[in-house]
Design goal:
- The chain has one domain (7-147): 3-Layer(aba) Sandwich (NADH Oxidase), CATH 3.40.109.
- The longest helix is centred in the middle third of the chain and has 18 residues, at 94-111.
- The protein has helices spanning 3-9, 23-34, 53-59, 94-111, 124-131, 163-166; strands at residues 45-50, 73-80, 115-116, 137-146.
- The chain is α+β, with helices and mostly antiparallel strands.
- The model has no long low-confidence stretch (mean pLDDT 96).
- Bound molecules: flavin mononucleotide.
Length: 174
């Protein structure tokens, strides 16, 4: 599959089948996150994989949507603000690094026929306490993972701005 087809195949999945995710596939997805580029190659991340039902239920207290519990796996990508690169003007690149790793994982999952959904709208403090994260780690993205229930795919996936609206040549023009 070419890259554009894979990128189009990835979409937000908000309901999963009860079929478990094979360990090999989970490892492949994590490995695709592991090899992502990061500023100065600092790799300021920890990926927490939650599979136990009891623990997934705990996690869902930080993002209370019924569908989240249908995912057999939840990966929480945590950024390490202590080790991430800061530019001379102080800009912290943790979010960018984590976003790239998350994108690698969502695309890898799509390649394997698995579904994911980016989740950032969680209760951060609750999640920190549930995962017992140390002070330097911030949970940045939550990725539920599983086989998609194809009957409930959102049509938002098909809605994108046109090229003419977002691409400017040589310099910005309103
Ligand atoms: C940074 C980011 C944060 C997001 N947070 C959430 C979220 O908290 N809950 C949710 O249901 N979807 C979330 N999404 C999914 C977007 O709503 C979705 O990607 C967008 O509507 C386009 O649909 P598609 O992913 O199917 O192409 C998030 C996506 C991104 C990239």
């Amino acid at each position: 599959m070419g890259f554009l087809d894979l990128a189009k195949k990835r979409c937000s999945v908000r309901k999963f089948l009860s079929k478990p995710v094979e360990g090999e596939k989970l490892n492949y997805i994590l490995d695709c996150g592991r090899i992502a580029p990061s500023a100065v190659n600092f790799q300021p991340w920890v990926f927490i994989v939650v599979r136990e039902e009891e623990n997934r239920k705990m996690i869902s207290q930080a993002y209370s949507r019924e569908w989240l519990l249908t995912a057999p796996v939840i990966i929480i990508l945590c950024g390490d603000h202590q080790t991430a690169w800061k530019r001379a003007d102080g800009k912290d690149h943790t979010d960018i690094d984590i976003a790239i790793a998350a994108d690698h994982m969502t695309l890898a999952a799509a390649e394997l026929g698995l579904g994911t959904c980016w989740i950032c709208n969680f209760d951060k403090e609750k999640l920190i306490s549930i995962l017992e994260l140390p002070e330097n780690l911030e949970p940045i993205v939550m990725l539920p993972l599983g086989y998609p229930d194809e009957s409930v795919l959102s049509d938002r996936h098909l809605k994108r701005k046109g090229m003419e609206e977002i691409v400017k040549h040589e310099k910005y023009k309103p």
